[in-house]
Amino acid sequence: MTISIRDDLALARSLAAMADLVSMRRYESQDFTVTTKPDRTPVTEADREVEHAIREGLAAARPDDAILGEEFGSTGPQDGEHRPHRQWIIDPIDGTANFLRGVPIWGTLIALALDGVPVVGVVSSPALGQRWWGAIGEGAYTQRSDKHEERIHVSAVKTLGDAVISYNSLPAWIEAGRGDNAIALATSAWRARAIGDMWSYMLVAEGAIDVATECDLQSYDMAALIPIITEAGGRFTDIEGRDGPWNGTACATNGLLHDDVLELLR
Q1: String of b and e for 196-212 (b: at least 16 CB within 10 Å)?
Q2: Which of 26, 31, 238, 253 maximizes the CB count within 10 A of its CB?
Q3: Helix, strand, coil percentages in the chain from 3-state DSSP, rounded to 5
Q4: Which CATH number goes with the domain that contains 234?
Q5: CA atoms within 13 A on the CB side of 137
Q6: Residue 154's CB: how many other CB atoms inside 10 A?
C-alpha cells in the first residue's frame, strides 16, 4: 500500500486531536504526580498518558513504522547506524513546566521523519486554543478554536534592528557557554523576548515574530516544528547552520535574517 504525505498528515492531525482530549482533561483537573527525570526536567503522568495514546494510534494505523518519543524512547524497526526510513517523533507535552503550573504555553508535537528528515509536523496547543501543521509540498496552516483554517507565512522583515526575537531561556545559553552570543543577538534586535517552548517557533511560522532560537534541545522538541516553519517560507537549522533536529540547538527565522542570526550565535 502506498502512503502519501497527505495521508500521514491527516493521521498526525487526528492523533493530535485525540491527544488534546487526554492532555486537557489532566490540565484542567491538575490531578497528576510530578517527578524529575535524570536530566532534571519534570515529567507528569499526563506526559506518559498522552504519548501512550499516540503510540497506540500509530500501532493501529502504521504498525511497520518506527517511533521515537520523549517518555518511552525508540521502538519499531531500526536500521543500524542509519535513521529509520519512517520514524514518528513525539513530544507528548512540550512545555511540561508550564503545564504543571497552569500556564497555557504547552503543546503536543507529532512529526514524521523519512530517513531522518522531518516531512510532516503537527503542533497542537489546546490550552491556547490553536493547532498548527505542515508537510513538505503541502504548505503550513493554523486553526484557532471555532475558526476556519488559514495558511500561514513568515514575515518579510529584513534587518535585525527591525526584528522581534525569542531567545527562550537565558540560563540555558549561559550554561552552554553562549550567554554573550544570546545577549548580542537580543541587543541587536528591535524587541527581544523569552516566549518559550513550541509557541515561539509557531509565532515565527505565522510571521508574528521573526527569530526563535534555543540551546539544550532534543530531537523530539524540534522535529515537528521544521516542516511547519519551512513550509511557511522560513528556515530552520541548529545554531551552527546544520539542517535537521539532531544537533541539540535550534535557530528558526523568516529566512531573510538567518545568516545574520547565525553569525551572532556562532
Answers
A1: bbbbbbbbbbbbebbbb
A2: 253
A3: 35, 25, 35
A4: 3.40.190.80
A5: 5
A6: 25
pLDDT digits (tens, 9 = 90+) for 56-97: 999 999 999 999 999 999 998 776 678 999 999 999 999 988
- Where does a domain end: 95, 116, 151? 151
Location of C-alpha cell 491556547? 128
pLDDT digits (tens, 9 = 90+) for 218-227: 999 999 999 9
Same-domain check for residues 119 and 186: no
- Residue that wins the pLDDT comparison between 46 and 133: 133
**pTM for this model (two decimals):** 0.94
CA angle, residues 43, 48, 50, in degrees to nearest 5: 120
Tell me which residue range forms the domain holding 49.
5-151
Task: Please give the C-alpha separations between residue 75 and each of 19, 51, 176, 260, 266, in angstroms, as whole numbers.
Answer: 19, 13, 30, 39, 35
Angle at 141 between CA 246 and CA 7, to 5 degrees: 75
Q: What is the largest CA-CA distance in the chain?
A: 53
Grid cell at residue 100:
504543571
Residue appearing with cell numbers 492523533: 15
Same domain, 20 and 117: yes
The reply to whether 21 and 122 lie within a common domain is yes
Instruction: Tell me, yes or no, whether 181 and 247 share the same domain.
Output: yes
The mean of the pLDDT values for the chain is 93
Number of domains in the chain: 2
**CB half-sphere exposure, 255, CA atoms < 13 A:** 14
